[in-house]
Design a protein that fits this description.
With about 450 residues, this protein is mainly beta. It binds CU-O-CU linkage and copper (II) ion. CU-O-CU linkage binds next to strand 5 and strand 30. This is Multicopper oxidase family protein.
């Protein structure tokens, strides 16, 4: 039984970490005694959702909402989130996807905490140190629970914005997801086109979150725009672009910005069953323009303008890992199936990344399979150094979820500055379940 096996392996790693000498206990949890600046309560619960088709499906949600409520906070605040489980039988957690929180707050069942069972509670605490667009989701049987709706958006506003309020702007969060049994993709829980009013001249920020397990493709038609942030990290000096397709990795986020023109602007989703999107127009009505035939895919590797990097390809790396992704036949839950392998192994036999605090760590990802693998590292952000042998140029490209497409090779690096036990896995959560999961361990 692979489940039991996996859980044991995780527990062993966890206890290994708590005994480690170089790890100080205070860094492993969020501030526990101070009064929080902001409090949220999220209750995991079974929820009947009625779909536009008239059909009703059982979703699993936080606070009865699909997606869960947007958690908005400000940089520097101490956040407390109380998680309650009303009636999700297998238990739930909350993982703060993209937030580099202390290890004990990371929300990984079987590794950093136990799953919160029905009738139980768990309190998360962390300081919102980053800014930008993130999301949260259950990390207990996540391939099932995220599909069923246990996720929501999280936005951290920068402290500077608060001090110098600009022109009133339109700031909208849009989450791409396909609900288990929901029969089609949704944008923030809605099928079809959402229409909003936006006066010409209004600065607009759209926060695009891909909460599904395969890449999301967006097109913005009707205005040039900037890709202002990737995975919560601001792009330095982003150029104006138009007529491109944005590919957002499963688990990834893009913020795009533009100034509302006189005519309507349409954000559409291509390459998945269509007819969904956001229409902005001066009076909140209008028709969506027809979809644009194949637009080139936006390339983050050469976008924006450069700033000095904390480290680059020529750095001396303390650790150098190479991971080759492949598919192989094997047994899962007693059935012969295609398993997703890293260096020929499936979890829990996959490589373990052993590091020491302070290490500069390089990872090379090589995708020899026929599917995308959005690689997500918990607790750290990766700097993309190269793709297919070519060094990235432009603004530093920091990511927590990197889509590695079939045939691609990436070099990335990160500073090991957040002690603990962390997951590094494919965010196609089905792949993570059948093989593509690794652990990063501070020794
Ligand atoms: Cu968004 Cu380990 O997950
Ligand atoms: Cu994968």
């Amino acid at each position: 039984n692979r489940h039991a096996h996996a859980a044991n392996a995780q527990e062993q790693h966890a206890s290994g970490v708590s005994r480690g000498q170089s790890v100080s206990v205070t860094e492993l949890t969020g501030p526990r005694s101070e009064i929080p600046d902001r409090r949220f309560t999220l209750t995991a619960q079974k929820t009947q959702l009625s779909l536009p088709s008239g059909k009703s499906v059982e979703a699993w949600t936080y606070n009865g909402q699909y997606p869960g409520p947007e958690l908005r906070m400000r940089e520097g605040e101490l956040i407390e989130v109380v998680l309650e489980n009303k009636d999700i039988p297998e238990g739930v957690t909350i993982h703060w996807h993209g937030l580099n929180v202390p290890n004990a707050e990371d929300g990984v069942a079987g590794a950093t905490q136990d799953a919160v069972l029905p009738g139980e509670k768990h309190v998360y605490r962390f300081v919102a140190k980053q800014t930008g667009t993130y999301w949260y989701h259950s990390h207990q049987q996540s391939s099932v629970q995220v599909k069923k709706g246990l996720f929501g958006p999280l936005v951290i506003e920068s402290a500077n914005e608060a001090k110098s309020p600009k022109q009133p702007s339109l700031d909208l969060t849009l989450v791409h997801h396909k609900l288990n049994g929901g029969g089609g993709f949704t944008l923030s829980g809605k099928q079809g086109v959402t229409k909003e009013q936006a006066a010409p001249g209004t600065p607009v920020r759209l926060r695009l979150i891909n909460a599904d397990s395969s890449p999301a493709y967006f097109q913005l038609l009707g205005s040039p725009y900037q890709v202002a942030a990737i995975d919560g990290n601001d792009v330095h000096d982003p150029n104006l672009i138009a007529n491109q397709t944005l590919l957002i990795a499963a688990g990834g986020r893009y913020d795009i910005t533009f100034t509302m023109p006189q005519r309507p602007v349409f954000l559409s989703q291509s390459r998945s069953d269509g007819g969904r999107g956001l229409l902005l127009s001066p009076d909140g009505t209008g028709e969506a323009p027809p979809p644009h035939p194949d637009l080139p895919v936006f390339d983050p590797a050469g976008y924006g303008s450069p700033v000095p990097l904390p480290f680059d390809r020529a750095a001396r790396f303390d650790r150098d890992f190479r991971f080759v992704f492949d598919v192989q036949l094997g047994f899962y839950d007693g059935r012969l199936d295609g398993l997703w392998a890293i260096n020929g192994k499936v979890f829990p036999d996959t490589p373990m990344l052993m590091v020491q605090e302070g290490d500069l760590v390089k990872m090379t990802f090589v995708n020899r399979s026929y599917m995308d693998h959005p690689m997500h590292l918990h607790g750290h952000h990766m700097l993309v150094l190269s793709r297919n042998g070519t060094a990235t140029t432009g603004s530093p490209w920091w990511t927590d979820t990197l889509n590695v497409a079939p045939g691609e090779t990436y070099e990335v690096a990160f500073r090991a500055d957040n002690p603990g036990l962390w997951m590094d896995h494919c965010h196609n959560l089905t792949h993570a379940r059948v093989g593509m999961t690794m652990h990063l361990v501070y020794e």
